[in-house]
Write a structure and sequence with these properties.
The protein has 110 residues and is an alpha/beta fold. It has one domain: Rossmann fold (3-Layer(aba) Sandwich), CATH 3.40.50.2300. Helix content is 34%, strand content 18%. It has four helices and four strands; from the N terminus they run E-H-E-H-E-H-E-H. The longest helix is centred in the first third of the chain and has 13 residues. It is globular and about 30 Å long. It starts with 12 loop residues before the first strand and ends in a 10-residue tail after the last helix. The N terminus and C terminus are likely disordered.
């Protein structure tokens, strides 16, 4: 169950992975204002490095990023059994069907 901060329960941890700082700021403000614990990282490599320490329950992942795109990040996350329960939500402005079907569906929660 996904919950915002209430009583003694720990807030849900959300990681925002996006190279667009303006768009990420919108997400940060929105989710932080609802009581979620939010971490913003600007690259896929940084996200992969932060996952073990931050333990996100949800990752909001941009597809089009330099250096390492969201598809590669997603495959890396899903390739580690310790990340099996992380919910990944793809955020993209990609309009081409060919790009959208690249998303691996190995995990039904993906």
């Amino acid at each position: 169950m996904i919950q915002a901060m209430s009583g003694t329960a720990d807030p849900t941890r959300i990681m925002v992975v996006d190279d667009d700082a303006g768009y990420a700021r919108l997400l940060l403000d929105c989710f932080s204002g609802l009581g979620f614990e939010v971490l913003y990282v600007q690259s896929g490599r940084k996200a992969l490095a932060e996952i073990p320490a931050f333990h996100p329950e949800i990752i909001l992942l941009d597809i089009r990023m330099p250096e390492m795109d969201g598809f590669e990040v997603c495959r890396s996350i899903r390739g580690n059994p310790e990340n099996a329960n992380i919910i990944i939500i793809i955020l993209t402005s990609v309009g081409e069907v060919e790009d959208k079907i690249k998303i691996p569906l190995q995990n039904p929660r993906f």
